[in-house]
Automatic annotation (TrEMBL):
InterPro entries: CobW-likC_sf (IPR036627), CobW-like_C (IPR011629), CobW/HypB/UreG_nucleotide-bd (IPR003495), P-loop_NTPase (IPR027417), Zinc-reg_GTPase_activator (IPR051316)
Organism superkingdom: Bacteria
Segments forming domain CobW C-terminal: 210-306
Protein name: GTP-binding protein
Keyword set includes Hydrolase: yes
Catalytically driven reaction(s): GTP + H2O = GDP + phosphate + H(+)
Family annotation (Pfam families): cobW, CobW_C
Keywords: Chaperone, Hydrolase, Nucleotide-binding
Spans traversing the lipid bilayer: none
Signal peptide start and end residues: none
UniProt xrefs under PANTHER family: COBW DOMAIN-CONTAINING PROTEIN, COBW-RELATED
Entry similarity comment: Belongs to the SIMIBI class G3E GTPase family. ZNG1 subfamily.
Length: 332
């Protein structure tokens, strides 16, 4: 049986850039998604935890220190264990780090975690549009430039010039949740959920709506070319999801590895796993989600990944370019 995994998204940035505003916006517009939050306060009073308590499905507060001060992976794993366990039933965990935390260390700690239920969902760096930290932009899978209401969209250009991942502009932290996670349809309770009550009371807080581009192919995609496309962080694309057939079954080290893979990305953070049998396909079915998307360019990039009759036969290890991002090597 395959382990149920929960993506853990790290939200980092300097003090006052709008991290809590972004997390609160996600919680208020969860649309059925069950979100757990780890709030990393620095100081004796858990102010950040107070700001999100009651809005999240689950909140864990880490007082008196930064996550970057946790020197072993077990420290972070212990904090996340309850949130990512199947019993919790969460769809997403967001770690809002103190403004004093070092993003590189946050990523290292999560990637070193041995919890089979927690998977790296990407580093989201929140930057101040008026004075963006370009070093954070270079590290992040997704960069959120907050404060466009004060500085204008031109503030994005400087960040895009150096960012390795996707770049999105916001005001007041209003990031469309669709850029991170899909809505989940669950039976509606007789009593309104807190996010629904908040929307009724406050009204919808406008955000830059996500766009989508669909791509289908009746032929398999070349694993190497597809991996290069995903790793390049196509302009405007924040998420990619779908299923893909590749010509080779996965290469050495994967017994009876499948040919069809489920693909999920957030910025440059890539996750693949064997597709459920009901999602079998002869080629590819992908959806790209982001803002200001160049649809012709994206379609051209994916079309170039399609295997043609003129392509040489794949080597034994050809699929490893993609399957090295596999996340479900453990069973339970």
């Amino acid at each position: 049986m395959t382990v149920r995994t929960v993506p853990v998204v790290l939200v980092a940035g300097h003090l006052g850039v709008g991290k809590s505003s972004l997390v609160n916006h996600l919680l208020r517009h969860a649309d059925g998604v069950r979100i757990g939050v780890v709030v990393n306060d620095f100081g004796a009073l858990g102010i950040d935890a107070m700001l999100v308590a009651g809005q999240a499905s689950s909140v864990t507060s880490l007082a008196n220190g930064c996550l970057c001060c946790v020197t072993d992976a077990d420290g972070l794993s212990g904090v996340l264990a309850d949130l990512v366990s199947p019993a919790a039933g969460l769809d997403l965990v967001v770690v809002e780090a103190s403004g004093l935390a070092e993003p590189r260390e946050l990523v290292r700690l999560l990637l070193a975690s041995h919890d089979p239920h927690a998977v790296y969902g990407g580093l989201v760096a929140v930057l101040d549009a008026g004075a963006p930290d370009l070093e954070h932009a270079r590290l992040a899978d997704l960069v959120v430039v907050n404060g466009l209401d004060r500085c204008g969209a031109a503030a994005l250009d400087e960040v895009r010039a150096v960012a390795a991942g996707a770049v999105v502009g916001t005001s007041h932290g209003a990031l469309d949740p669709a850029l991170l996670v899909d809505p989940v349809r669950r039976p509606q309770p007789s009593q309104l959920t807190l996010d629904a009550l908040l929307r009724e009371a406050d009204g919808e807080h406008p955000h830059m709506a996500a766009q989508s581009v669909s791509f289908t192919s009746e032929r398999p995609l070349d694993a190497g070319r597809l991996a290069a496309f995903l790793e390049s962080g196509p302009r405007g694309v924040v998420r990619i999801k779908g299923i893909v057939r590749v010509p080779d079954g996965g290469g050495e080290g994967f017994d009876e590895a499948p040919d069809v893979w489920e693909v999920q990305t957030v910025g440059t953070a890539i996750r693949v796993r064997p597709a459920p049998g009901r999602l079998d396909t002869r080629g590819a079915r992908l959806v790209l989600i982001g803002t200001d998307l160049d649809e012709p360019a994206l379609r051209a990039g994916l079309t170039a990944c399609v295997v043609s009759d003129d392509d040489p036969a794949p080597s034994q290890h050809a699929a490893l370019a993609l399957t090295r991002y596999r996340i479900d090597l453990t069973s339970a």
